[in-house]
Amino acid sequence: MSExxxxxxxxxxxxxxxxxxxxxxxxxxxxxxxxxxxxRDKVFQAMGMQVIQVAPGSATxxxxxxxxxxxxxxxxxxGLITTLADTAFAYACNSRNAxxxxxxxxxxxxxxxxxxxxxxxxxxxxxxGGRMGIYDCEVTDQNGRRIALFRGHSYAMKxxxxxxxxxxxxxxxxx
Length: 175
What we know:
The protein is α+β, with helices and mostly antiparallel strands. The strands form 2 sheets. The protein has a 6-stranded antiparallel beta sheet. A two-stranded antiparallel ribbon has the order 7-8. A hairpin with a 2-residue loop joins strand 1 and strand 2. 37% of the residues are buried.
């Protein structure tokens, strides 16, 4: 996987005929989607994740490695690091209120994480066109050590939204 890009891609509408929302509306949408997803995501809740930042096409989540997250080598299970990155990916790719799922993911686990480590997963869109997207996620620990690199390919479900009505905007924005 190549190095993560330093700047997020400019937001693109799911349907090229649809106008892009203002920056303030787009941020409001991302926050409303975050709130809805957080309320119903049982894995997010069980793992003690927190959303630190969400914006159109990006999200940062954190998780503290607990004793019950350690494998037989006394390091954080790679599947749980993957789950943190995948969850940040979900928040980033659904942030425009087009119901979006993963079509594929890859992860490179670079260094172990230990009990008590506070992991941060920062995910941002690298490419978007039509209903397909590519997102990169970097997982780091509290000292800035790179723990994992994740890439997700997304697919937006035509005509479906995460939430039905957005605050002061009416219906969702998906095509």
